[in-house]
UniProtKB/TrEMBL annotation:
Molecular function via GO: IMP cyclohydrolase activity; phosphoribosylaminoimidazolecarboxamide formyltransferase activity
Domain called MGS-like: residue spans: 1-143
Domain of life of the source: Bacteria
Catalyzed reaction equations: (6R)-10-formyltetrahydrofolate + 5-amino-1-(5-phospho-beta-D-ribosyl)imidazole-4-carboxamide = 5-formamido-1-(5-phospho-D-ribosyl)imidazole-4-carboxamide + (6S)-5,6,7,8-tetrahydrofolate; IMP + H2O = 5-formamido-1-(5-phospho-D-ribosyl)imidazole-4-carboxamide
The record's note on its domains: The IMP cyclohydrolase activity resides in the N-terminal region.
Family: Belongs to the PurH family.
InterPro entries according to UniProt: AICAR_Tfase_dup_dom_sf, Cytidine_deaminase-like, MGS-like_dom, MGS-like_dom_sf, PurH-like
Pathway field: Purine metabolism; IMP biosynthesis via de novo pathway; 5-formamido-1-(5-phospho-D-ribosyl)imidazole-4-carboxamide from 5-amino-1-(5-phospho-D-ribosyl)imidazole-4-carboxamide (10-formyl THF route): step 1/1; Purine metabolism; IMP biosynthesis via de novo pathway; IMP from 5-formamido-1-(5-phospho-D-ribosyl)imidazole-4-carboxamide: step 1/1
Residues annotated as transmembrane: none
Protein name, per record: Bifunctional purine biosynthesis protein PurH
Entry keywords, A to Z: Hydrolase, Multifunctional enzyme, Purine biosynthesis, Transferase
Cross-referenced CDD domains: IMPCH
Database matches in SMART domains: AICARFT_IMPCHas, MGS
Length: 523
């Protein structure tokens, strides 16, 4: 049996090659890999000696030869193929171990030039991988070090790879080539005439890996599956570990993502309760219990069957409070043993553990998407993700009445929450707690009315609250509704042709008005 080894990433390759040699497998290799194996005392034949043709063009041509591809592509069950190999003195290659030039890692480096990128486009490697993967019944093709243990286990047990494993390796090989080519296409098609890189390439090649099939989609008559990015960011929902509960549904995952993205944006202990993709309760507190208790008060009715997310580990006290309500999914960076014990009897509750991004809030970008994608009929909409953060120094006070320090904090809290509420969004807040949320209405005026109505139903007073509007007030009527409900300070982006009319209304009503200069539509 012959094995050809040519790897850029040499993780584990020496040990793997030593094991192959111990099984009596003849080793072929190229360049640096051959030197590594030879220096370790392994008998290895360089591909140039095998083909009788030297490497050339600075290594650009070394495996593109009939003795390589003939040995990979010949079907052992076709007599004509085997006769052709014999006629031309070509030996079969039964195992191919190849990983590719590090194109993705190269272009991710700051200052990468087009020349650097081009020189890291592998040609011979993908060609060999495709040949071996096409002929999977006769050739095992390994493209990742994680496959080495399984291959060695089967070789040790049976002296060969099973058809099941060879086919799985073949599929993985074609997937890897697809990912590699997609990365090259994305990079090269983003280059503009002046040499700069366009934010959105001329061709976009999505590369996602399926995590699981789902029972159904948004509705039982729809089919669904859950995928992750090829290289998922730390601190994102797809990195979650499910500790308990039923299988996640399509709606669970969508709502869980909304809750997690919102809760991890807070520096202090926070809790977010989401229902149908909208936060129905958000609060900060000294710990998980206090933040949950405040968030739940916002809208106990909507919280029933909701998704609950914490940005701090849960202890027993918080778990006991949460366990008193019906919850679909619970998320936190960690759980005490006592907290998990509380939920043992609630076997259907889906409990997810998600590590916060490394470095915490200061490194939050590590867990956020850079680009958002929305599917439309036969196409995609792509945009940079709404990752805009707002600081007190960016606020512009336009009312005669000046905000107090507490009002500024309340306004920023309300603004942070409004960003995660479906448009049109109106959010009442006070003391680090949502008091009323109006979401997803065609009229901003209706959102304002609904937010105040929900506060009334929850027996919450809106007197002295801060209000955030995710977009400008087109008329003063929306402002009048929130002030009539009890708001004394308002934050909105501004930008309406009637801004002055609305500002004058704020002065007339004696409330604080602050402009953010940023809109947060969320559809």
């Amino acid at each position: 049996m012959n094995a050809l080894i040519s790897v850029s990433d040499k993780t584990g390759i020496l040990e793997f090659a030593q094991a192959l040699h111990a099984f009596g497998i003849h080793l072929l290799s190229t360049g640096g890999t051959a030197k590594l194996l030879a220096d370790a005392g392994l008998p290895v034949t360089e591909v140039a000696d095998h083909t009788g043709f030297p490497e050339m063009l600075d290594g650009r041509v070394k495996t593109l030869h009939p003795k390589v591809h003939g040995g990979l592509l010949a079907r052992r069950d076709v007599p004509a193929h085997m006769a052709a190999l014999k006629e031309h003195g070509i030996a079969t290659i039964d195992l191919l171990v190849v990983n590719l030039y590090p194109f993705e890692a190269t272009v991710a480096k700051p200052g990468c030039t087009l020349e650097d990128a081009i020189e890291n486009i592998d040609i011979g490697g993908p060609a060999m991988v495709r040949s071996a993967a096409k002929n999977w019944k006769d050739v095992g093709v390994l493209t990742d070090a994680s496959q080495y243990p399984l291959a060695l286990a089967e070789l040790k047990a049976d002296g060969k790879l099973s058809d099941k494993t060879k086919f799985a390796f073949s599929v993985a090989a074609f997937n890897r080539i697809s990912q590699y080519d997609g990365a090259i296409s994305d990079y090269l098609s983003s280059i503009q005439q002046d040499g700069a890189h366009a934010l959105f390439p001329a061709q976009s090649n999505g590369r996602f890996v399926k995590l699981q099939d789902l029972r159904y989609g948004e509705n039982p008559h729809q089919q669904a599956a859950f995928y992750r990015d090829l290289y998922p960011a730390p601190g994102s929902l797809v990195t979650a570990k499910q500790l308990q509960g039923k299988e996640l549904s399509y709606n669970n995952i969508a709502d869980a993502d909304a809750a997690w993205e919102c809760v991890k944006s807070f520096d202090t202990p926070a809790c977010v309760i989401v229902k149908h993709a909208n936060p129905c309760g958000v609060a900060t507190g000294t710990d998980a219990l206090e933040s949950y208790s405040k968030a739940f008060k916002t809208d106990p009715t909507s919280a029933f069957g909701g998704i609950i997310a914490f940005n701090r580990p849960m202890d027993r006290a918080a778990a006991e409070a949460v366990s008193k309500q019906f919850v679909e999914v619970l998320m936190a960076p960690g759980y005490s043993a006592e907290a998990l014990e509380v939920f043992k009897s609630k076997v259907n509750v889906r409990i997810l553990e998600i590590a916060l991004p490394p470095g915490g809030k200061s490194d939050w970008d590590n867990g956020r998407n850079a680009v958002d994608v929305k599917r439309i009929g036969s196409g995609l909409l792509m945009q940079t993700a709404d990752n805009r953060e707002l600081s007190i120094g960016e606020l512009k006070v336009v009312s005669k009445k000046q905000p107090t320090p507490q009002q500024l904090q309340d306004l920023l809290f309300a603004w942070k929450v409004a960003k995660f509420v479906k448009s049109n969004a109106i959010v009442f807040c006070a003391d680090g707690m949502t008091m009323g949320v109006g979401a997803g209405q065609m009229s901003r005026l209706d959102s304002a009315r609904i937010a105040s109505i929900k506060a009334q139903h929850a027996n919450l007073s809106l007197a002295g609250t801060a209000v955030a509007s995710d977009a400008f007030f087109p008329f003063r009527d929306g402002l009048d509704v929130v002030v009539d409900a009890g708001a004394t300070s308002v934050i909105q982006p501004g930008g309406s042709m009637r801004d002055q009319e609305v500002i004058d209304a704020a002065d007339e009503r004696g409330v604080v008005m602050v402009l953010s200069g940023v809109r947060h539509f969320r559809h």
